[in-house]
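Support reply, case 0932

Customer input (verbatim):
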Amino acid sequence: MKYNSTKLSNGLRVITVPMASSESTTLTIWVKTGSRNEDKKINGISHFLEHMVFKGSSKRPSAKEISEVVDSFGGEFNAATSKDWTNFYIKCRNASIETAFDVLSDMVLSPILKVEEIEREKGTIVQELAMYEDTPMIKINDVFEELAFDNHPLSWDVGGNEKSVRSILKSDFEKYRREYYYPENIIITVAGGISEKKVLGLVNKYFKELKNSKTQEFKADKKFQVSQSQSRVKIRNKKSDQAHLILGFMGDGREYGNRYAQSVLSTILGGGMSSRLFIEVRERRGLAYAVKTGIERYQETGYISTYIGTDPKKIEEAIAVTLEQYHGISNGQFPISNEELAKAKEYLKGHIALGLEDTSAVNEFFAFQELFLDKVITPEELFKKIDSVGLDEVYEEAKRLFKKEKLNLAIIGPYKDEQKFLGLIK
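Our regenerated output:
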């Protein structure tokens, strides 16, 4: 898959991925900021601003006017906020791409931020936070990161909390935009049935007024330093018919050199319906419907973890079986065969390839690398790196990662005794 990368004179970066057979194109604007860049008193402002961009812009001063234009060409538009990036996108027929540029650039660069809309949207966001609070399968990730990152901004909820959201003012939005919405902190990605020449022409037309400014991307004192020296447990007590848990070990950031071996390791443990944990936890013992292992990375830190939803009465067995599988690899009790290694590699490559059939996913693939890594590689280059992973590298990562002093366990369910579970994982 070929891509083109251009940096404009004002520092704005543009990535174009022409896909000749595609009938659609996705335009995405990425801003390298999220909840980790916030102050505690305005926690949630990145996500709140994502909402406000849709409420009216200089050319289209209401949400209705914006949505009517996008609906008029059958487009799809949305946005997302994470702990260290925010994005806004429109997906449309190739013929409508200029209108998409016009609408999205105006929304992101010139939001009106009406005071009455800000006040009205506060109630909507508070309800959104309550919805997630009542959805343990989603909320458990927040509980785990509260434990893993221990009062650091990475531990804060992306959406903030009711107090912080209700305290945010128009002046806070304006200050935040000045600090982070500047050209060198923004990337535009366009993937689909469009040429680089067309894209650069539209970028110059709709983003030429974006002025550069100097600011820090995130303060040095906000970088996370792992200080954990023993296993930890955090319980969110909730009466429910199902318990939700994430068990994970602290790991490495995005630029860690052996991250491909870690991905293979994660896949062997819980990457599919024939993975070790799926077979042991669900198929053989019937302890859970959902079981999944994955890796989360931020710039300087990360973790490998397994999510399980289980019967509250079976949670201890589910934890014990999961730890047995983790440690069975690291101590050699459950060796990995060459066939299992090969299957994990093909699973990874297959999922990546299937995902890249969508133009939005193509934008994401290249944008994350451009935002956070020193070098951008193509899917074909990534496949070669996965293929090159050796069995010894996978074992080395398992031994390095799966140590009790790196272990964290987060639970949502009808429990209160953290010491009981701490004893179990120790």
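We compared this against your earlier run and they match. Two observations from our side: The mean pLDDT is 95. The CA atoms of residues 60 and 341 lie 54 Å apart. Please reopen the case if you see a mismatch on your end.
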